[in-house]
Design goal:
Blueprint: H1 2-6, E1 11-14, E2 20-23, E3 26-29, H2 30-36, E4 40-47, E5 50-63, E6 88-98, E7 104-113
């Protein structure tokens, strides 16, 4: 992530909600941050042959933990050591689906690095224009 960001490359990660990030001065799990986000209704989407309400919440978060690479050193065959780096300020985008009665169906969280942190809000994008995180969840 840090290498891509330093090269000016935009990226998107759909990750587990157990990972941690700084938000509002505290380090919290992504899922806990998502629980406290305000959501904006964003239209209807198809979900398993039915219509579902899509809501989007977003905020800035900071990733500060050291990189724990899973790759191995070619010379030694051992895992590459922990690599400290600069903190990354990212956008956390959470998509929440509810059925037509308001019952919670599911949620998917994404962190993304953009060239401009002051990018327009995703809240104005219609359901068809948003990355659909539920296609492979």
């Amino acid at each position: 992530m840090r290498t891509l960001s330093s090269q000016g490359i935009c990226w998107l990660i759909r990750g587990k909600e157990g990972h941690r990030a700084e938000w509002g001065g505290d380090t919290r799990k992504i899922g806990e941050i998502a629980d406290d986000l305000p959501f904006i209704a964003n239209g209807l989407v198809g979900w398993k042959g039915k219509k579902a309400n899509m809501e989007i919440g977003e905020t800035s978060v900071i990733i500060t933990r050291t990189a724990k690479a899973k790759r191995k050193d070619k010379n030694t065959g051992r895992r590459v050591k922990v690599q400290p780096g600069v903190a990354l300020t990212l956008r956390l985008v959470v998509v929440r689906l509810t059925d037509t009665y308001g019952k919670f169906i599911g949620r998917c969280s994404q962190t993304l690095a953009t060239r401009s942190p002051a990018r327009k809000s995703l809240a104005g994008i219609t359901g068809a224009g948003v990355l659909n995180p539920f296609l492979s969840c």
